[in-house]
Amino acid sequence: MAQTRFAPDRGLTSRMVTTMFLIGLLYVVVVGVLVVLLKGAWVVVLVIAGALFVAQFWFSDRIAAFSMGAREVTPEQAPELHGAVDRLCALADMPKPRVAIAESDVPNAFATGRGQKNSLVCATTGLLRRLEPAELEGVLAHELSHVAHRDVAVMTIASFLGVLAGIITRAALWSGIGRDSRDQNTAIAVLIVTAVSAVIYTLSFLLTRLLSRYRELAADRAAALLTGRPSALAAALTKVTGQMARIPTEDLRKAQPFNAFYFAPAFNKESFSRLLSSHPTLEQRLEQLARISTELGRA
């Protein structure tokens, strides 16, 4: 990664390399299977695969930001948010990302981007209303560490393929395309594409989970060490997680598809999403921050 004052993490780096390798391997296997099964349309398969690869690399961050309602703001529109980002970027010795706000009462934050120069950090209006300045800086430092370590780019790219496959699968299942088709070859092709999309979605989901939980712990640690205030980040985590139970279920459901990007997962206590959560538990995160606080106290 580019040199910053965020603490490096070899475990995170190895997981990112493994995830990208497996995503690339998944691409090769899927394209190969489609070329073999759809022999007469192999040129179309290769063209579509190439277009998706380009779109995944160049536009996945913009698509993710748009999907989560991020609206870029100027220093005049959000002086406190920009001020916090300015201070942290100076402290971390890294380029300042674009700053955005999402109109949502769900208290959260996220970062997207292929690299430090084209990254974006976003906070929701619900988060800005609820956190104290020190707590907000802890959350923003967490998100900036994702940018500095480049794991946000890996997550954005890795998630794109799964999201696309999920959309194709749901569209085929809901519409029933191919069921009543008189052209048997068309029906078979549709079923093949649907089945392959379902497999891709499952594998992509598992690959992103391989990275996601660890990267959140790495970002917590890097943010705590950079700011020197793990207690502020712990307070923000406790406050944000506690407030989730007060958010309307409909708003939580809208946010849940993007949990892998968020500072804290959006779900209520009754949700089964905890079983396949993109984040470590609150207890694990708080225990790590308590250890860091003890280490800093001894130092």
Automatic annotation (TrEMBL):
The keyword Transmembrane applies. This is Protease HtpX homolog. GO terms for molecular function: metalloendopeptidase activity; zinc ion binding. The gene is htpX1. Keywords: Cell membrane, Hydrolase, Membrane, Metal-binding, Metalloprotease, Protease, Transmembrane, Transmembrane helix, Zinc. The keyword Cell membrane applies. Zn(2+) binds at H142, H146, E216. It is an enzyme of class 3 (hydrolase). Pfam families: Peptidase_M48. Binds 1 zinc ion per subunit. It comes from Streptomyces tubercidicus. It is found in: Cell membrane. GO terms for cellular component: plasma membrane. Belongs to the peptidase M48B family. Its cofactor is Zn(2+). GO terms for biological process: proteolysis. The chain crosses the membrane at residues 12-35, 41-59, 152-174, 186-207. Its EC number is 3.4.24.-. The active site is at E143.
